[in-house]
Amino acid sequence: MNGDSILEVRDLRISFSTYAGEVQAVRGVSFDLRRGETLAIVGESGSGKTVTAKSLLRLLPEANTTIKGGEALFEGQDLLKLSEQQMQKLRGSKIAMVFQDPMTSLDPTMKIGRQITESLKEHLGLSGQRARERAVELLTLVGIPNPEDRVKQYPHQFSGGMRQRVVIAIALACDPQILIADEPTTALDVTIQAQILELLRDLQEQLGMSVILITHDLGVVAHTAHRVAVMYAGKVIETGTLREIFYNPQMPYTWGLLASIPLPTADRSQDLIPIPGSPPDMHDPPKGCPFTPRCPYAMRVCAEEMPGYTTFSAEHKAACWLHHPMAPNVEPPVRIGGTR
Amino acid sequence: METRHRELTPDLFNSAPLTAQEGERIAGPPIGFWKDSWIRLKKNRGALISLGVIVVLIALAFALGPLLSPYTLYGQDLTRRFLGPTAEFWFGTDKFGRDMWTRVWAGTRVSLYIAFLAAFLDIFVGVVYGAISGFLGGRVDDVMQRVIEVLNGIPYLVVAILAMTIFKPGILTISIAIGLTGWTYMARIVRGRMLQLKEQDFTLASRSLGASRSRLVWKHLLPNSLGPIIVNLMFTIPTAIFAEAFLSFIGLGIQVPEASLGSLISDAASEMRFHPYLLWFPSIVFCLLMVCFNLLGDGLRDALDPKMRK
Amino acid sequence: MTEQGTNGNGRALLEIKELKKHFRVGRGVTLKAVDGISLEIERGETLGLVGESGCGKTTAGRVLVRLYEPSGGEVIFGGKDVHGTEGEEGRALNRKMQMIFQDQQASLNPRMIVRDIIAEGLDIHNLVGSKKERLDRVQELLDVVGLDKEHANRYPHEFSGGQRQRIGVARALAVNPEFIVADEPVSALDVSIQAQVINLMRRLQEERDLTYLFISHDLSVVKYISDRVGVMYLGQLVELADSDELYENPLHPYTRALLSAVPVPDPDYETERERTVLQGDLPSPVNPPSGCRFRTRCPQAVEAAAQVEPEWREIKLGHWVQACPCFT
Question: What is the mean pLDDT of residues C104-128?
Fold first, then answer.
């Protein structure tokens, strides 16, 4: 999928003020989203991936959030600098978002049909009749049987998986160019998750939209993504194509992530290789590379300064001092890239 | 690789991984629940000021007030009736020539006695009732809740009037009358909390370890209910003060020559036209108590709520 | 019912026979959370129990540690009836079976310091004589699970998720159990931390000869840690086999679909594999389908499936399946 970029995020910095002090949730994040591709942003708790996603649609609570810097360029405009009115025109029409919990994503007192047509009327100015027809079309598109009947029902009459499909339908209503999906399947059962992932993949092929998929599940990434950005403690530490990240990762954190997940082919007599310690406290972010306290290859320089990016290919970049010419040569753990 | 400002020397690339133990370390001293809540409460200006004001008022009522005044509560001197605030009588005198400063603080004492007694009843009856009802659940809970609903249906005024006619009106009777009907709210809150906590994993964990019922209640459920209990207590006090004032207003409260804030206000209301100072002082103290306890209660509610922690 | 799931050498630590747990959820409406499961767990093994929401695995685990009383069937531990034994003997039996919970935040009393949380079992059963002994024991346990001695004085909220889970493990270990039910112990943890806790559990099992029932919806983790795996659907066991056998030769259509649905962190594998994506939703456990419960979503469903209750059979040695007419 090598189209041109539809979204360019540069050096995004976001902080929250809590009663315990400032939390630097996002500390200089940059990435591109190409036309027609799925970019997976992977990270664990505290990595800042959800905050990044929400900031693109400016959905963060105004009261205690400060966007301290950076830009997000979409169609020649900086999303971070638009007014609320301009953002409202974009949300749901050009850029749509799907959240994690289908239970709370829908208004329980409004019929499904109305929740879809709301968006259609607001952004596309469709009339009542035409809007209703389109709503039924959308429900069919996302695979809900008997859409003419279900359009008149309330959210509580749908199961979890069905609700998530409705949420996707609402997101797709105005044919957005970008769909941001924040852990869309985490709250669902495995077999339902499979359905929704298939659906997202089919829809993307059909409609040609670009998808930002936020997740912590590497299996989901392997199934749906074209490119991957790995985040840790508010920074993007590695990006690359799907195969590059899984088969030729260049960063100890990525090695650690991949090594700590048991594959079906795993040898049960071997221990898993965990990453010791826990993600850092973002109230007091570390000076150098944030992964230093947990990195088995840490060097003195790691704690002092943040490494710059090393480019390995057109798409593959990683930020690690191990790539510096003065650093010792390190072999990644055997498991990676060698299993198949 | 893009290198930046600093000069990179080869020795910086020596290995320096942290040991596993260091990775597990937690910074700072252990912060218990109460300390954490106190820190949060301190950040709430309104609550902190209220706390200060309340402390001052209590000090004045129980210690400083009487100390600073040479006059007594009942001492009448008809020669100096209706004197406005002067250097000698800081709050003036009433229609019997009694020193208002002494009377106001005596009245505050009485109001606070009543409020604390009512709050005490609240805890005793309310918490125990609610805890039993919530913890046992099932049919017992159903029955106990119906009883509360019946009690709630009886207006406390009726209970108060009955109490006054049967027993001699006094601090004790009034406290009982207010407390008798007020405990139901606390019971409901504690019951709700019990029902919630019963299903939490830590309760289940203790049960699976073999904890007895009393252990569960005393070590796990009640300590985790203290938050709402304390908050509710903070609100019970002004409610009781107000209830007493109301009773005094309709003549069922403290009888002469005793004074409470309510009775002082009630008396002063009839003299308001010509001697407004009689009304100001007790009213200000009354309002300060009400507002400050409410603000403190609000602040405590936020400070004690574990969900609002970082 | 014949001998279930053992290799015939009679070392079964735990025997579960036709266990049922029903909840009354309204006028005449019963939720059949667990509806007749039978299996045996051998000493020293790890039995994995997988399934999706509403399958009853968590309820089953809770019945085993006596948090719920069963509505039918029995649980025999070391020859004794778990729910029938009362008094002192009952309590001693209770101690031998402990539980680790999923939500490490909610499973620790926020008002207690770690030392008291871990020592609770010791206090309840009077296993230590003096304060010093108590503290020593707690510090020993903290060490075993890889935490610092000074952590004993802290409160749960000061720890990270992985650390809290390890405190939960220490608490369960305090009373020297023989059998531990681990209810989704790593599901709420970050991936890199999951491996820490899993390794810990494996090490403890070796050192202390523990037996685990590992309940999870995460098939990759279960396959890795378990010797045998049981698959549950709507309150019943549909398949039970050795870990490797289950993954290489799944017989029941639900097991096949479940395995097929799990995304694997290996892009080439994902592109090449064939997936069976089930249609439709999980039926409610209040009103399960008649006959074979899986028939409403089964890609191979036949007419007969609605009428006949499938039989729990040992198709191959050690490999049990709910034999539905559609594949037998």
Answer: 88
With 0-12 / 13-18 / 19 or more C-beta atoms within 10 angstroms meaning exposed / middle / buried, residue C185 is buried
- B32 CB neighbours in chain C (<8 A) are 113, 155
Token pair for A83? 């007014």
CA distance A131 to A124: 9
CB contact C67 to A (< 8 Å): no
> Number of C-alpha atoms within 13 angstroms, CB side, residue C189?
30
Strand order in the sheet with A317-319: A95-98, A178-182, A210-215, A38-42, A227-232, A235-241, A317-319, A309-311
Output helix, strand, coil percentages for chain C, rounded to the nearest 5.
35, 25, 40
The neighbour count for residue B261, using CB atoms within 10 Å, is: 32
Going by the DSSP 8-state scheme, the letter that residue C151 receives in this structure is G
Element (H, E) at C97: strand C97-100
B54 Cβ neighbours under 8 A, 6+ residues apart = B289, B292, B293, B296
A309-331 pLDDT, tens digit per residue, is 899 998 899 999 888 887 888 87
Gap between the Cα atoms of A282 and A23, Å rounded: 5
Flag if B18 and A307 touch (Cβ within 8 Å): no
Between CA C227 and CA C6 the distance in angstroms is: 12
Which of chain B's residues have a Cβ under 8 Å away from the Cβ of C102? Answer: 201
Residue of C nearest to B304 (CA): C111
- pLDDT band, very low/low/confident/very high, at B306 (cuts 50, 70, 90): low
Structure tokens at A131: 């809007």
C181: helix, coil or strand?
strand
HSE, CB side, 13 Å, CA atoms: give it for residue C183: 25
Residues in chain A: 340
- Per the listing, tokens 């299993």 go with A339
Distance CA C274, CA C276 (A): 7
Is domain B36-70+89-308 classified as CATH 1.10.357.10?
no
Contact criterion met (CB < 8 Å) for A299 and B40: no
Please write the tens of the pLDDT for every residue from B176-212: 777 777 788 889 999 999 998 988 889 999 988 888 8
Q: What is the pLDDT of residues C89-98, one digit of tens each?
A: 888 888 899 9
pLDDT digits 0-9 by tens, A122-131: 888 888 888 9
- Name residues of chain A where pLDDT drops below 70: 1-3, 19, 334-340
Contact of A10 with A73, CB cutoff 8 Å: yes
d(CA C7, CA C16) in angstroms, rounded, equals 16
State the Cα–Cα distance between residues B103 and A15, nearest whole angstrom. Answer: 56
- Going along chain A from its start, the domains and CATH numbers come out as 5-231 (3.40.50.300), 248-323 (no CATH)
SS (H, E, C) B98-163: CEHHHHHHHHHHHHHHHHHHHHHHHHHHHHHHHHHHHHHCHHHHHHHHHHHHHHHHCCHHHHHHHH
- Which domains, from first to last, does chain C contain? 12-323 (3.40.50.300)
* ipTM, interface predicted TM-score of the complex: 0.83
For the range B275-282, what are the long-range contacts, defined as Cβ-Cβ under 8 Å and sequence gap of 24 or more? Answer: B275/B82, B275/B84, B275/B92, B277/B84, B277/B85, B277/B91, B277/B92, B277/B100, B278/B92, B278/B94, B278/B100, B281/B91, B281/B92, B281/B100, B281/B104, B282/B104, B282/B107
3-state secondary structure of A328: coil
In the prediction, which pLDDT does B233 show?
87
Hey, is A186 helix, strand or coil? coil
Q: Does C223 touch chain A (CB under 8 A)?
A: yes
Residues of C in contact with A197 (CB under 8 A): 263
Beta-carbon separation of C196 and A274 below 8 A: yes
C299, C318 Cβ separation under 8 angstroms: no
Name the residue facing A308 among B4, B15, B20 (closest C-beta): B4
C-alpha–C-alpha distance, residues C176 and A66, integer Å: 51
